[in-house]
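Researcher: I'd like a structural prediction for the single chain below. Treat it as a standalone chain; there are no partners to consider.
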Amino acid sequence: MKPSHSKSLVVVCACLSASVVLAQTQSSGESREAALRRLQDAAGGGAVIATHRATGAARFIRLLPGARGLGRGPAVTAVEKQDQSVAFFREYGAAVGIDDPRSLHFVSTVTDRLGETHLTWKQFYGSIPVFAGTIKTHFDASNQLKAVAGTAIPGIAVDPKPSWSAGRVTQVARASVAAERGGAEVLRIGTVTL
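Model: Treating it as a single chain, here is the predicted structure.
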């Protein structure tokens, strides 16, 4: 393929991808706003929300003193805290960038010296962990869900299955580096394990 055809193909693909991402972002933005409104209503307007610049999703939600809780009353046991966290993600997950609550996998529970409990959740796309996709739910000493913080990546829409073989990737990578730096005969390819 001629270089000018390659560039044209890249531009067309980029435009198509951008329009799909824009449509998904607009759709998730609308559901995000609806979830934020429901959350503020449930908290009696007493939720403080900070948003993430890159994703537009809430990265920190906490209650003002005296505000109605984010959960359904006290969650005394570890299982109750997990259940309340999952219920929060089902009801308000779009606010924090969670498209599907099943994409969050429970990681750990830590109770600090003040008696507050912090649950960590990791975001996955299918079976693949999402880089930087970590959300924490925080329960106060009286076992009330008081805050949710972290980063989730909304609107992930990629095919996680590789479309190129390892051999093809190696060939293209070597050719690219050789073209940029010269001397393909000195390049060595090792193995990478994820």
